[in-house]
Design brief:
The complex is a heterodimer of chains A (514) and B (206). Chain A is built from 20 helices and one strand. Chain A is an all-alpha fold. Chain A folds into three domains: 246 residues, no CATH class; 53 residues, no CATH class; 102 residues, no CATH class. Chain A starts with a strand and ends in a 9-residue tail after the last helix. About 5% of the residues of chain A have low confidence. Chain B has seven helices and five strands; from the N terminus they run βαααββαββααα. Chain B starts with a strand and ends with a helix. The interface between A and B is medium-sized, with 21 and 43 residues.
Chain lengths: 514, 206
């Protein structure tokens, strides 16, 4: 078949697989190199230093675990030895270093307060770690959080549980599900080539720790030191001076002779040689010691729960009682009623203070006392300010007011007189004269503002006379002026109109300018 | 040149497993785009052999150089939407048009590498190189190529891999429209599938 084709869409898959294979090979090579290095170093001076350090770290972790057991009240019988033995066997079976296993166990013990439960969780953590590729530390932290109620921590591990499952399920349900999902992962991982290498590494590490312990013991004996730290610091110097101090170190070599016995390089069980009770427990089944420890821990936990429950109950009852008392407390009722009424700010503060005193609420009492003091100070200040204000003088006391009524009466009198004079003057004319005036009846309402009200007499030349232009009024003509109701403005306006009309007619001259 | 589509193989697997109807739909849509191209490519196959000596005879018993057979060529011009085996570079071809027959490949590509035919060395020349003409006729290669006709497709300098007389000619005629249609179909199906799986997730979460 030919290979003539138009490839329209393609995907790159091949190289990725090669890369994965490369990575796996590289990891394997690194493990082998590390292992080889560890073997080689174990025989050198630096190796000795490393061995001592490894032992120190291991010893520290073991002691920390022991202290945790002490703190939790689980350090009785052969518990410490049992747990250490369990971790040692787990280390050899799974290829996971005790440097990781001990802190994980420690974490679970603190969370569960039960050796059995901790072992269960550690087994599960190992399975999850092998299945997901996450570190044991990370997995154990997440499991610890989940045990304490933070299930979301497990979601981040990518264990195949949905958010809904994590939220709605109890830890037991989740644990059951995880047991199903990751069953046997650690065993499978331990049986792979990489797992075998890891197991070998564990054996070498244990050998290093054993060697380190031998060194430390020997150095302690030789130097009289009681702690490890000065030994670690001084081991470099000792190594440099090793060749020159052959005679002095002869005894040292004699003491550490057993260290170079080949059988000690591959001691896998009982690395420290000081633990008791190792080897009497399997991964899946608890020993009698463990069961006793669990029973005691459970009893202690139950007692604690009982005590807490009793305390909670008592607190709740007290609270209920005080509430019931408050219902029938008349003083409080009165205060509450008063607070609902219309009261001043100061009164309100007083009532609240009283209420706080009734409730024996110290913080509220202090608060309202302070507020009341402030309110009282403000009131005093206001009172003193008001007291300092003088009454206003009667600025109008020297004023001589004429009442409006009096003014109107005066005006009315004036205009009545004026109208009467004008009317009588017109009426005094004969009919011809009146006709000569065109039957004109002027001055219905008039106003002469310039005329002082005190001079009611009409000037003789006002619009009437025998000379000038227009219709002239003969002497003795009476002009009636209708002054209206008495409104000064209306009267003034009427007079003004009359005068204007007289001016237009030409009968007004000389006296009043319009 | 093929365009790389990340996740195309996984999409196909997922479709087959979780949404067989979408898998069928995608195949159908790709067929609608690719079928006309293969049909057109088939139409370019000459009924008779371009050279009399290359034609298939009743008495011919075959040989190393395959005889011209129009039906065979046409039958082997096909399109595929199933992932191929990875090539040496690590690529898996997901959608492709193939000219599978030997005769078809010769007719398609002859003269693509050397427009004048291979260098003539004659039948008596030594060596075992296949890159030279050992024919009696020094112009055999030139005559063969010129009788087959013009090559179609993008004529890039030094790279004639996308030139040909059948499928490449039909492909060049689409001017990239078919290419765009193929990716559009894949994209549409991906969107549909993602929407459907998202709905499943929502239901599961609920």
């Amino acid at each position: 078949m030919s290979n003539v084709a138009i490839n329209i869409a393609a995907e790159f898959l091949g190289k990725r697989a090669f890369k994965q294979a490369d990575t796996a090979t590289a990891k394997l090579t690194k493990s082998v190199k590390t292992l080889a290095g560890a073997f080689g170093l174990a025989f050198g001076v630096r190796g000795a230093s490393l061995a001592v350090r490894a032992f120190a770290e291991d010893d520290k972790a073991a002691r920390a675990l022991g202290q945790t057991l002490n703190n939790l009240g689980l350090a009785y019988g052969s518990n410490a030895g049992t747990i250490n033995g369990y971790i040692s066997r787990l280390e050899q079976q799974t290829g996971v270093l005790d440097d990781e296993l001990r802190p994980a166990m420690d974490r679970f013990l603190r969370a569960t307060l039960s050796v059995t439960k901790s072992q269960e969780l550690l087994n599960l953590a190992l399975d999850i770690s092998a299945g997901t590729g996450k570190s044991l530390t990370q997995v154990s932290q997440s499991l610890q959080k989940a045990y304490l109620g933070q299930n979301q921590a497990l979601g981040r591990l990518g264990v195949g549980l949905s958010k809904a499952e994590l939220t709605s399920s109890s830890f037991e349900e989740i644990q059951q599900r995880l047991n199903v999902l990751f069953a046997g992962q650690s065993v499978v991982a331990a049986n792979t080539y990489a797992g075998e290498i890891a197991k070998l590494q564990v054996a070498v590490n244990n050998a290093k720790e054993t060697i380190g312990k031998g060194f430390v013991d020997a150095l302690k004996t030789a130097s009289g030191s009681s702690t490890i730290d000065p030994v670690i610091n001084g081991i470099g110097k000792i190594a440099n001076a090793f060749a020159a101090l052959t005679r002095e170190t002869g005894e040292f070599i004699a003491i550490t002779k057993s260290l170079f016995d080949p059988k000690n390089f591959f001691v896998m069980n009982n690395p420290a040689g000081s633990f008791k009770g190792m080897g009497n427990i399997s991964i899946s089944k608890s020993s009698q010691d463990t069961q006793k420890a669990d029973a005691a821990a459970a009893k202690a936990a139950a007692a604690q729960v009982k005590s807490t429950n009793a305390l909670t109950k008592s607190t709740k009852e007290n609270l209920k009682l005080s509430k019931a008392k408050a219902i029938f407390d008349l003083q409080k009722i009165q205060i509450e009623a008063a607070l609902k009424g219309k009261i001043s700010e100061e009164d309100r503060i007083r009532l609240l203070l009283m209420k706080a005193i009734e409730d024996e609420n110290i913080s509220q009492i202090e608060k309202y006392t302070k507020m009341l003091d402030e309110a009282q100070k403000n009131t005093e200040k206001l009172v003193s300010t008001l007291a300092g204000i003088k009454p206003l003088d009667d600025i109008f006391k020297n004023f001589n007011f004429m009442s409006v009524k009096e003014q109107l009466a005066s005006l009315t009198t004036y205009f009545n007189n004026f109208a009467g004079s004008a009317a009588s003057a017109f009426n005094a004319l004969n009919q011809q004269q009146q006709a000569a005036l065109g039957g004109y009846k002027p001055f219905v309402g008039a106003s002469i503002p310039s005329v002082a009200p005190t001079n009611p007499s009409m000037p003789s030349s006002v619009g009437l006379g025998t000379s000038g232009t227009g219709n002239q009024v003969p002497a003795g003509v009476t002009i009636n002026v209708n002054t209206g109701v008495g409104d000064p403005n209306a009267i003034a306006e009427a007079i003004e109109n009359v005068l204007v009309e007289a001016n237009y007619r030409g009968t007004l001259r000389g006296l009043i300018a319009v | 040149m093929a365009t790389e589509v990340v996740g195309a193989v996984a999409l196909r697997k997922a479709l087959k497993q979780y949404a067989p109807d979408l898998a069928k739909e995608l195949t159908k849509e790709l067929g609608l785009v690719l079928k006309p191209i293969t049909n057109e490519a088939r139409s370019y196959v000459p009924l008779a052999s371009p050279m009399s000596g290359w034609s298939k005879r009743e008495s011919s018993k075959g040989g190393r150089f395959p005889k011209y057979d129009a039906a065979e060529i046409r039958r082997n011009i096909v399109y595929k939407t199933t992932p191929s085996k990875p090539n040496r570079a690590g690529f898996v071809n997901v959608v492709r048009i193939q000219n599978k027959s030997m005769q078809g490949a010769i007719y398609e590509t002859a003269g693509r590498k050397n427009g004048q035919g291979q260098d003539w060395v004659g039948p008596r020349a030594g060596g075992a190189s296949k890159g030279v003409s050992r024919s009696n006729n020094p112009y055999a290669g030139n005559q063969f190529i010129s009788n087959l006709g013009q090559l179609y497709g993008p004529n890039k300098k030094g790279d004639h891999r996308m030139m040909g007389r059948l499928i490449f000619r039909a492909w060049a005629k689409t001017q990239g429209k078919a290419n765009a249609a193929v990716f559009k179909s894949i994209e549409n199906t991906t969107t549909k599938f993602n929407r459907r799986t998202a709905m499943v997730d929502v239901r599961r979460a609920a």
